[in-house]
Amino acid sequence: MNIINFMKIDLHCHTYKTKNRFGSNMTPKNMIKVAKKRNLDGIAITDDDTLEGYFEMKKNLKGDKDFLLIPGFETQGFEIAEILVLGIDYIPKKKNLMDFVDEIRDNNGVCILPHPFTFVPTLRYKKTLKELEIFDGIEVINSFDWGIYTEFAEKVANVFNLGKTSGSDAHSLRNIGLAYTICEDPIKDIKKRRTKVAGIESPWTYKISNLIKFLDNSPV
User: Where would a tag sit more exposed on the chain, N or C end, judged by fewer CB atoms within 10 A?
Assistant: First the structure.
């Protein structure tokens, strides 16, 4: 990687278009302001099963060539807690896992396993480690998680030669940029396994509030 040309990109952010239990009240306009203030060179909008937030932000960034916006989304299915898709601006129909992954790749996108070993049971990867090989990369740093999960995720990425990503998983403005991926071209660099990751954990208050939201929505 050419250190002169590297970028800092938060590859996991949610706008107000994410309607899951954790929610988000962030508008694209405010997210752009905060991201630039925190010296990010770009972000990926990864709302749950929608690209509405991405297209709204794209409209807000019209004519801005100094800030990289990456399309993406987060989705559930195939007996996998969640899949983070980056690089395509539409959502393929879900057939089976391999067809889904192949369609993403055929359109120059990548499939990432987000927060794979998180303390939240329903968001944790549950298949065998060997099956991780179908993914292009693994989210090594998610600012919502604790360091022990990050350390294990990095070891797994190294063992299975997976691309490494880092993202804040921000649902509020205060978390944008807490974790980011260092690269020249995010999609190409994930595929070629040459990204670097960096970041810190979210404040405890944020983690606790999200845990409460999870518990409030969990079946008894």
Answer: C
**Phi, psi for residue 163 in degrees, rounded to 5:** -65, 150
The sign of the dihedral angle between the CA atoms of 180, 181, 182, 184 is negative
Extents of the domains making up the chain: 7-17+70-217
Q: Which positions of the chain have pLDDT values less than 50?
A: 218-220
pLDDT in tens, 92-138: 987 888 899 999 999 999 999 998 887 665 666 666 666 788 899 99
Backbone angles phi, psi at 191, to 5 degrees: -65, -35
Whole-model pTM: value is 0.88
Select the CATH number that applies to the domain covering 7-17+70-217 from these four: 3.90.25.10, 3.90.850.10, 2.10.70.10, 3.20.20.140: 3.20.20.140
The Cα–Cα gap between 167 and 58 comes to 19
